[in-house]
Amino acid sequence: MKIRTTRCALSAAASGVAVIVCLMAAGQADAQGRRGQGGPPTVPTEEQWLASAEAQRRAAAAMTLAGSDLLPQAQRFCTATGPLRLALARQAAGLAPIENYTIEPTRVFDNMYFIGMSSQNTWAITTSDGIILLDTLNSTEEARDVIVPSLRKVGLDPAEIKYIIVGHGHPGQSDHTGGALYLQQTYGAKVVMHPLDTEQILPAQRPDRPLATPDLDAADGQKLTLGDTTVTLVHIPGHTPGSLGVIVPVTHRGTPHTVMTFAATQMPTRASLLQFEHVFNEFARPLKVEAAVNFHAGGLQDDFVHLETIRNNPTGPNPYLYGPERFDRWMSIVIECGRARLAAMGR
Ligand SMILES: [Zn+2]
């Protein structure tokens, strides 16, 4: 399979997607390597974490920022590993894996739905001209047997999927990318991905999990418009070199808010930390982001409880919505804990 090397301006112009900014952070290429996978470690050991005076000082500063209303979040972020997705957290705790199951699809905002499974999920954004799908689960089977029926269950037509933004991809693994080819081939959806991840995953794809070749390369700050909705793609490397966040304008019972998706919040290098700060300061804060969602339920917050709360009490407060002031402190906590881990690793 041929790897696309076209950069954002060219591919975006060819397909009518407006490119506002194409800033590529320097030094991203080193923002890879996961513990035990050959590259440099992305997180400190428990011993390094505890032995670093700066890490402990920064963790304490994060707790102060948290006050009482964000303390559980700060405690989750300010550890040697930071927040781990459920499967990895269970593994780290020596617990047996639990079976992956389909979660009841849930309308979290007027125009944004949780679709997927307990171990990984997608988000469907509805617009006046179709659906933007964020992430695609593991495989053709999961796209066909989970995404498609879940969309139908909440009254959405999978044939309306126009864009698929794949938040990131791991070489040899398909937990976010595996369903894209089926949706691309079946519904003609255009797949968008960051080229730094495309370049890694296509040569490493498994024969039984064929991957979609992206139609569009994403870049930091790029806007993608479908009908009445414009989302902003931001580059937040660390978990993978090409991890993307997507800033999404939503409404909640008619009132506008802004949501940001995160692949993960790892900042294993100074360059990835600086890029997170850039994204928070140049995009998330000006766009008044006030909610974070991700692609592994339970990874950033307790999605299982949040989703059930929303389903049980659709007119009650939305637990994802922090409000701008609280979300601003949440971002500061994420950065402070990222700095703490870098200090513990001596970077
Ligand atoms: Zn991942």
Outline the secondary-structure elements.
Blueprint: H1 8-14, H2 46-51, H3 53-66, H4 71-77, H5 86-92, E1 102-109, E2 112-117, E3 121-127, E4 130-134, H6 140-153, E5 161-165, H7 180-187, E6 190-193, H8 195-201, E7 216-217, E8 222-226, E9 229-235, E10 244-252, E11 255-262, H9 270-284, E12 289-294, H10 303-312, H11 324-344
Parallel strand pairs: 4-5, 5-6, 6-7, 11-12
Antiparallel strand pairs: 1-2, 2-3, 3-4, 8-9, 9-10, 10-11
Bound molecules: zinc ion (ZN).
Zinc ion binds next to loops.
How many beta strands in the DSSP annotation? Answer: 12
Structural class: alpha/beta
Write the CATH homologous superfamily.
Answer: Ribonuclease Z/Hydroxyacylglutathione hydrolase-like
**Secondary-structure element string:** HHHHHEEEEHEHEHEEEEEHEHH
Helical segment count: 11
What ligands does this structure carry? zinc ion
Report the mean per-residue pLDDT as an integer.
Answer: 88
CATH topology: Metallo-beta-lactamase, Chain A
- As for the number of domains, it is 1
Strand content: 15-25%
Molecular shape: globular
What is the CATH first-level class name? Alpha Beta
- The rounded distance between the terminal residues' Cα atoms is 38 Å
Helix content: 25-40%
Low-confidence stretches: 1-36
Rg result: 19 Å
The major sheet is characterized as: 7 strands, mixed
CATH second-level architecture? 4-Layer Sandwich
Strand neighbour order, sheet with most strands: 1-2-3-4-5-6-7
